[in-house]
Specification:
alpha+beta; single chain; 5 strands
Length: 259
């Protein structure tokens, strides 16, 4: 029966179910001590990212190595390379090139000999949080490429499952905060606003994945909320309330990792 006073849930039933089933898949294949004992909430702080000044290549390498360490994948071999930057679309005097595809934020690839390469857009060095999210996403690709079965819905859903995996690895605050960007540009006779985003999920969806991680790890919301953007704070509170009104966490706690 329809109830006009019922609190509206953050996600649709279908999207919520997909996230829960993705966590079930991850817990089954990667949910041993690496998750329950070692995974922790990664925060945008100097303590988590003690990055020293240096060349662009040096700074990118420091971030990558730190993300890999925090993900518990520091012994996983991967070559890090920079790929092409975004094309210049602001040509001055109010001339803006339309319909130009930006360069991808990152790429994951593995050759026939299983040599893994992770590449990144050098422009991300201007946005360290988005750089961290990109590295977390590509490392999540690396992790889940080793899964013996596809994610819920099949490999067509791999990118969406990979975003969720980044939160499963502890990077949910970064993923949610960088899912949407609104920034000003200007110079040489042109000014305006641009929107951009990282990843494949919305801020609300990333916030739900973060909520799943917090509840499964018994981490209080107060550990994450001060580091969340205003929209994410609201989404996260709603996601936590939705989980507390369901049996999702109790069900996920029953998952037994496969050997």
């Amino acid at each position: 029966m329809w109830n006009p006073f019922r609190r509206r849930r953050l996600l649709s039933d279908e999207d919520e179910h997909f996230q829960i089933e993705c966590f079930r898949w991850l817990l089954r294949h990667f949910g041993g001590s690496d998750f329950h004992d070692d995974a922790r909430l990664v925060l945008p702080t100097a303590a988590d990212f003690p990055i020293e000044r240096g060349s662009d290549e040096s700074v990118a390498r420091q971030y990558f190595d730190r993300v890999r360490e925090l993900a518990g994948m520091d012994e996983w071999e991967a070559e890090l390379v920079a790929h092409e930057t975004d094309p210049q679309i602001h040509l001055g005097e109010l001339l803006i090139v339309q319909d130009v595809e930006p360069a991808p934020l990152g790429r994951f690839s593995a050759d026939s000999s299983d040599q893994v390469t992770i590449s990144y857009n050098p422009a991300l060095l201007r946005d360290p949080a988005l750089l961290v999210s990109t590295f977390a996403h590509e490392l999540a690709h690396y992790l889940t490429a080793n899964a013996p079965e596809p994610p819920p819905g099949g490999w067509d859903n791999w990118e969406f499952a990979t975003d969720i995996t980044a939160s499963f690895m502890g990077f949910g605050v970064f993923m949610a905060n960088t899912a949407f960007r609104f920034r000003q540009y200007g110079g040489a006779g042109v000014a305006g606003w641009q929107t951009s985003g990282g990843g494949y999920l919305s801020q609300a969806e990333h916030s739900f994945a973060l909520a799943l991680f917090l509840r499964l790890k018994d981490i209080p919301a107060s550990a994450a909320l001060p580091h969340c953007d205003p929209n994410v704070r609201g989404f996260l509170k709603r996601a936590l309330a939705d989980l507390d009104d369901s049996d999702a966490i109790a069900s996920l706690r029953q998952v037994v990792p496969v050997d």
